[in-house]
Amino acid sequence: MDLHSFFQALQESSLAHFVNTAGATYPIAESLHVIAIALVFGSIFIVDLRLLGLASMAQPFTRVAGDLLRCTWCGFALALVTGVLLFLPNATQLYTNAPFLTKMALLAAAGINMLVFELITVRGVSLWDSVNPPAEAKLAGLVSILLWTGVIVAGRLIGFTSVADDPFAYI
Amino acid sequence: MMKVLSDFGQNPISLAMASSSWVVPAMQSLHIMAIAVVFFSVLTVAMRLLGFAWAGQSVRQTADRFAPWILGALIVLAFTGLVLILAEPVRELMAVSFWLKMALLVLAIIISLRFTRSVRCSPVYQDQNGQADASTRRVTIVTVGVWIAIIFLGRFIAYDPLIWGRLSPLTVG
């Protein structure tokens, strides 16, 4: 099965059909996707600003990050589920759509940035937990803010380039 | 009304914004980022009030920490929202969802202002381990619900006829 037939099959699945035609399911999934973005971006933004030494300086970094991590993962899970639901009805257009692919690439880059930070940079956290973080931690925070901003912009651009069966999107 | 707005949409600023390939998506992206900041800030204060996070920090400290972000992001929301209205006045101002969203926004702001006042007066909010009483907890949950509804209605503006059917002036026929 080639790539196109695979996405064609997804697009013709009963779940895709349901999302696209069952009343307000599509806009509801979109709204939940925005709430998920708020959870992910909101929580990561606070951690990034703490890394940059610009906010929450009264609390240790590990404390700030620890309180927020659950929100980030809950938000990410919700974004993934709603994202798949939004993808299905437009699968054949989206898998070659430039903003969509850009968004996926930026998401992957944000994941790698987080992984490098968690595996390497955070090792010395005991030295800077309660003070202004070192340059490499600041860099991770800055890169994270830029990448997640890119994810949101690319995500919004998808709606301006590919709205296959979405007759209301331009109203 | 539709005619007035559609004529208004022909003014040079609106036309320039609507025909630009980047103004509307850029403003929408900024609008989403600002709503993320407001919603998450409200949520963190709510989590402290309900006892889910930020233990060891008083409600007053938590509220003071996030208030400037909420205010700043609300200003960004007002500015980007205004640009979006100018770019597409009919789509926004004729939508039932838009006016419901504005009504809920007023409600959310009134609740926040009242909360800001009480947070400064009540001794329990100055205490590191202070817990909110039952009625405050209820108001907290309602406030988060109001913000969730605001986000839904914001997205629903693009789908007004689908959501509201004949109630929406944008429904054709």
Question: What do these coordinates show?
Answer:
With 171 residues, chain A is mostly helical. Chain A has helices at 3-11, 14-21, 25-51, 61-87, 91-94, 98-119, 125-128, 135-161. In chain A, helix 3 packs antiparallel against helix 4. Chain A starts with a helix and ends in a 10-residue tail after the last helix. The model of chain A is unreliable at 164-171 (pLDDT under 50). Chain B is mostly helical and 173 residues long. In chain B, 76% of the residues lie in helices and 0% in strands. Chain B has 8 helices and no strands. The longest helix of chain B is centred in the middle third of the chain and has 29 residues, at 59-87. The radius of gyration of chain B is 19 Å and the shape is elongated. The two termini of chain B are 17 Å apart. At the A-B interface, helix 3, helix 4 and helix 8 of A face helix 3, helix 7 and helix 8 of B.
Task: Please tag this protein with its features.
heterodimer, A: 171 residues, mainly alpha, 8 helices, B: 173 residues, 0% strand, elongated
Number of helices of chain A: 8
Low-pLDDT regions of chain A: 164-171
- N- to C-terminal distance of chain A: 37 Å
What is the radius of gyration of chain A computed over CA atoms, rounded to a whole number of angstroms?
19 Å
Mean pLDDT of chain A: 89
> What is the number of strand segments of chain B?
0
Major sheet characteristics of chain A = none
Beta fraction of the residues of chain B? under 5%
The helix/strand class of chain B is mainly alpha
Elements of chain A, N to C (H/E): HHHHHHHH
What count of domains describes the coordinates of chain B? Answer: 1
**Counting H and I runs of at least 4 residues, what is the number of helices of chain B?**
8
| Overall structural domain count of chain A | 1
Order of helices and strands of chain B: HHHHHHHH
| Largest sheet, strands/sense/barrel of chain B | none
Q: What general form of chain B does the structure show? A: elongated
Tell me the overall shape of chain A: elongated
Instruction: Give the overall pLDDT of chain B as a whole number.
Output: 90
Largest interface, and how many residues on either side? A-B, 33 and 34 residues
SS strand fraction of chain A: under 5%
